[in-house]
């Protein structure tokens, strides 16, 4: 084996997470190879975060202008310009061309290999390129699996044969179909129902439970109501039993309860499957690692039962979000660099080399209409965890900064407080243009800021952040 085939670190998968991990190990002085079999930049750049947010943003801006007297009167059209929205989306997906990201990888000093990577025993990876040629590379210190996730397809009769859209097709579609049926009630379903309704498509959401069931109930309720007001059909607590595409190309779906609906396309938005089926974990002789399953890791992102294999991002399913995956990548990259240099590891909770926030403070914004921003635990999750809680709510429309920002503003904010420790463990806010309220909550939870001290964090008047003061007043000042 030539020295060209020996690296300090090998990273499999050049999504946002793999790129960040490789960047950290290069900064740690380690020669690092990053391997990608599709587009450098991964799901987030081309088929997830960026194109989906671009699809949503124009309608959100129009909605914001419509809600301000004086601005509303200046709007001439009744909906967004569909062609312009799709063109803007294309540019945010870099026209599915990864040359910009490849340039960044090169500038960061990371070596890049194109091809499918598979572990072949400890510290060894075999890369198969598009022509079928193979190259064997070894890692002196670590291999990191950052292979992400793909859409889960539930076992519904006829669904696979009907060739459903997944998150990829719905975020990259070149035309807006006349009608869309979306199976699922999570973040992808809700965001894409919001986007496509605004683009003039007739949308039906079929959720087997509530919408956004992992969040506070008032979030899913507000989003369902707004979707319905915008013309979408929202079927909650409804199963899909059979799907078929007829000779004309239309999709017919049988729903539990014997209802049938038809649509031009069906979208499956029923969660994610980690891409670990074909990365060779079966070659390691470790019974607890099963191809296709999320990789189990400790808080330094070291795969359990090994001292050289790491995993981060969706491949672990710890918190399948770009920002959390990149946070894990920073912890893992720094842990690999420290271990390689023989430096001590700081793996106490909130230490330098751990991803503690995954357990306590995962922020997420669902860019629906209204937006839902949340971090930490819901009231139910805190109670289930045995935390003695105090829960307070406040109506957003009563906040001066919110009302001046938007006519007829509505929404709700909730604090979940650990009554014993007197710190916030959960925050949710639902309303238009609330996303930027979230980071204050994340800082407060991570910092475990005592409620008594929070009374000294004065929000500027008249901003939406005054909701913090109102929530504290609802809670009462500790004496
Ligand atoms: C529609 C949608 C919208 C989303 N919106 C948001 C959002 O707004 N905010 C947010 O935080 N998160 C969002 N997410 C989640 C986010 O996209 C993922 O959490 C994130 O992409 C995970 O990054 P990753 O690097 O772990 O995986 P990926 O982005 O999937 O990257 C993995 C890379 O590994 C490559 N790969 C896989 N196997 C191999 C192999 N064997 N050899 C070589 N290469 C391989 C893949 O080709 C891919 O490029 C969204 C998800 C979806 C589906
Ligand atoms: N703005 C954002 O941050 C954002 C946006 C989109 C996606 N994401 C990430 O992507 C991940 C995937 O999103 P998602 O919406 O696909 O997953 P999800 O876990 O949010 O929701 C899955 C939905 O599918 C339903 N479902 C699951 N199995 C089913 C079945 N067999 N039949 C019918 N319904 C079924 C669930 O009840 C749920 O409503 C999310 O967990 C999130 O982390 C984030």
TrEMBL record:
Keyword annotations of the record: FAD, Flavoprotein, NAD, Nucleotide-binding
Domain Pyridine nucleotide-disulphide oxidoreductase dimerisation, residue spans: 362-468
Residues annotated for FAD binding in this entry: 53, 147-149, 314
Domain of life of the organism encoding this protein: Bacteria
UniProt protein name: Dihydrolipoamide dehydrogenase
Lineage of the species this protein comes from: Bacteria, Bacillati, Actinomycetota, Actinomycetes, Micrococcales
Gene3D superfamilies, sorted: 3.30.390.30, FAD/NAD(P)-binding domain
Record GO terms (molecular function): dihydrolipoyl dehydrogenase (NADH) activity; flavin adenine dinucleotide binding
Cofactor note: Binds 1 FAD per subunit.
Organism field: Microcella alkaliphila
